[in-house]
Design a protein that fits this description.
By secondary structure, the protein is an alpha/beta fold. It is built from nine helices and ten strands. The chain is globular and about 50 Å long. It starts with a strand and ends with a helix.
Length: 234
């Protein structure tokens, strides 16, 4: 579904991504891991065509990421997304549907389905200012699911959450994975990645260090965190 071939991104003298190649298959839950500044968010920005690669190619379903048709099949949740506090979660979802030009009847149906999926029944009409961080993340994920995307790209979806919020988001992602959704995840919570992802890649200083199935990466009593530290520190 996702293919990166020899992707490089330079900003003047800084090489943020250096000849990176990997693929993510349809229905896979994939994690892109690395320390701060490794190049993870730059790769996401290139997949979404927020910034072009300096060289190499990125494609989704064989279509270049620069082609607007790609974005019709992508749901995206940014790390520090914001929802106006004066809106209700329901109204926020409706506004997202309007931006996607979904007709009113279908938008109402999708909002009802999404509210049920994210477990926010009974709170969807309350103002966002009354929500916990976990609830706001749930509605952020709900917005990313609007329009029935085939691929979810999530940048640190559990950032700033307490353990209960982290568990809630993990359970929601596990539910989406069970429905066959392809998930591309950036996260520093390696224990959560280990629980829900099928495959993972580790990058550092723009270079791909390793990419494999979680079951192949974590074995012989090892943990993903121990592997990560060992690979990144050399």
């Amino acid at each position: 579904m996702i293919q990166l071939k020899n992707v490089t991104k330079r900003y003047d003298s800084l090489t943020a991504v250096d000849e990176v190649s990997f693929s993510v298959e349809r229905g896979e839950c994939f994690a892109l891991l690395g320390p701060n500044g490794a190049g993870k968010t730059t790769i996401v920005k290139m997949l979404l065509d927020f910034t072009p690669p300096t060289s190499g190619s990125l494609s989704l379903n064989g279509i270049p990421s620069s082609d607007a048709r790609c974005r019709a099949s992508i749901g995206y949740l940014a790390e520090n997304h914001h929802i106006p506090l004066s809106l209700s979660g329901w109204r926020y979802l409706l506004r997202c549907a309007e931006l996607l030009e979904i007709n009113r009847s279908d938008a109402m149906d999708q909002c009802r389905s999404i509210v049920e999926l994210i477990g926010m029944q009974g709170r969807e009409h309350a103002k966002v200012g009354t929500y916990s961080k976990g609830m706001i993340q749930r509605f952020g994920l709900g917005a990313a699911l609007m329009g029935d995307p085939k691929l979810l790209i999530l940048d640190e979806p559990t950032s700033g959450l307490d353990p209960i919020g982290i568990r809630e988001i993990r359970q929601l992602l596990e539910s989406l994975k069970g429905q066959g959704m392809t998930i591309f995840l950036n996260s520093h919570l390696l224990s959560e990645v280990e629980k829900i992802c099928d495959t993972a890649a580790i990058i550092n200083r723009g270079k791909l260090l390793v990419k494999d199935a979680i079951s192949a990466l974590v074995k012989d009593g090892d943990t993903l965190e121990e592997l990560f530290v060992r690979v990144v520190t050399g």
